[in-house]
Amino acid sequence: MANARLSTKGLFKKRFGNDQLAGMLMSLPGALMLVLFVVIPFFTAFVLSFYNIHLSNGHSFFMGFEQYRRILFDPNTSPIFWQSLGNNFVFALMVVPVQTGLAIALALLLNQKRKGIAFFRTFFFMPVVFPMSLVAVIWSLFYSRDLRGMINSLLNGISAGNIGPIDWLGTPGLALVSIAIMSVWAGVGFQMVIVLAGLQEIPLELYEAASIDKASKWQQFRNVTLPGLRNTLVFVVIITSIFSLRLFDQVYILTSGGPLGSTSTVMYQSVTSAWTDDNVGKGSAMTVVFVLIIIVLTLIQRRVLRQEREIK
Amino acid sequence: MSQMTQASLEQAVIARKRRSRKRNRAILSYTFLSVVTLLFFAPIAYLLIGSFKPKNEVLSGLNGFIPQHLTLANYGNVLQAFSSDSTGYFYKFYFNSIVVSAVIVLGGLLVNSMIAYALARLRWAGRNLVLSLVVLLMILPFEAIAVPLFDLLNDYRNTLFVQYIPFIASAFSVFLFYTFFIGLPGEIQEAARIDGAGPWRVYFKIIIPMSRPVFASVTILSFLAAWNSFLFPLMMVDSADVRPLPLAMTVFFQQQQKDWGTIFAFGVLLILPVMVVFLAFQRFFIQSVASSAVKG
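^ Those are the sequences you sent over. The predicted structure of the assembly is below.
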């Protein structure tokens, strides 16, 4: 036994030198944990989605594609899932353009050579370090439905009492918009910093050449800045879309998916199915759908970036 | 002669115009910057001021921004509100958050940098396999495995262990280390190897000291994620004894909707350590976040 081990070790050493053993040993803890806590759970989601599992009493039985039929096609149980998926997309449609546009505007504002820019940058970025749970707690007072709510009080003051108190989080058409505004405040500093880094990589000579050609500021922005930011913006758009799909904390804390499911999301449904309703199989099936969407988004990103490289 | 003065006069006028246009532009841009700063800072100011106001004066429209009747009572109330086994103890929440974050950050630095070094600098069979695994796993957000992990780790509910163990190894941190190590000049390492230093020696004596920036970046990013973590503790922790700060605050928020002063004081105490580190190293914070995106 000892002999056999020695000889394999000798063989390895011949082929790869000392690095074989060290390489494997150094990778072992990290690779093991990645397999245990990411790879296995990832595949487990697929397996669990074929079962009906109740953790509370230990019952579980195989049910094939039944969970998928229930969340996707069953006329009684599928509407809330489709509504949640739709909410994710509506949220993305609001947040992605606004947050990307705002990130560009803020980054341009910060990309000037002026005194004290770092001071302003600190403030624009500050919300990013706040946990979403705390952001939600603060904003729940901004959105309070009576005149004691900050935003209602502000609108009431500006309009001299003509805009009555609005129930920001309790009105079906408005709740998701309110959550989107709050999320933009909390998150835009992140995109801003990425765009700022992208701006600083655009060679200054391009701007010099443009101003020699008497290009206006707007023309410079259209023809130098935007093309120079292309890859950065593709990245920002994709990552913001993925953030939109992951939406959970704000919704859980502020609205519990309501009113009338208007702020429910895929993750909210997935987590509450598994955790509140003790239905891990259903939650896992939703996780699988979620993962498939993430993979498609990532493939689109790769595709777009590869096209760019081919053009170059 | 008079023509000369005429010309220089005109030049002076043009120069003055240009200067005043420049000044106007500066005023415009500082005004803009200040307005945006106010918008960004308003909710944070509201939190800070509210935490020092009597509890029934926090939720009062725009008056919430006016610092009057300031008191420290809310901070005392935070300690008082959490002083039994059923509510949990405030110092315990802090302790839980610190332990969980510390294990994730320190464990992560060691484990992830080691695997990254093996992938970036050592040649061994299986390297490509592990590398492609890491790259594939990078795109998976935690939400994609939250539910199955909830099922798999069900036996470890209500422990600190369950709160840190899935987060120590991180494909994303490995990738950050990997790209940094790949970019390091190879000569010193090769010279050390020729002098007979093994891979472990090179890693501890050469790589780690040369890589302070990436270690700092990963520390900042993983600390933020760990300290602010919400979803997994929410699913895995019911007992007040092992609750981390954000979860404890949310539970309190949902039970005690009226006591705004105390909730805000809790919020300030929760964000305080992050704020101190952020303000001290803000340049570095921002760079870390930016670099994480550019490389990813």
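Chain B touches chain A through 96 residues (CB under 8 Å). Chain B has a mean pLDDT of 89.

Shout if you want it in another format.
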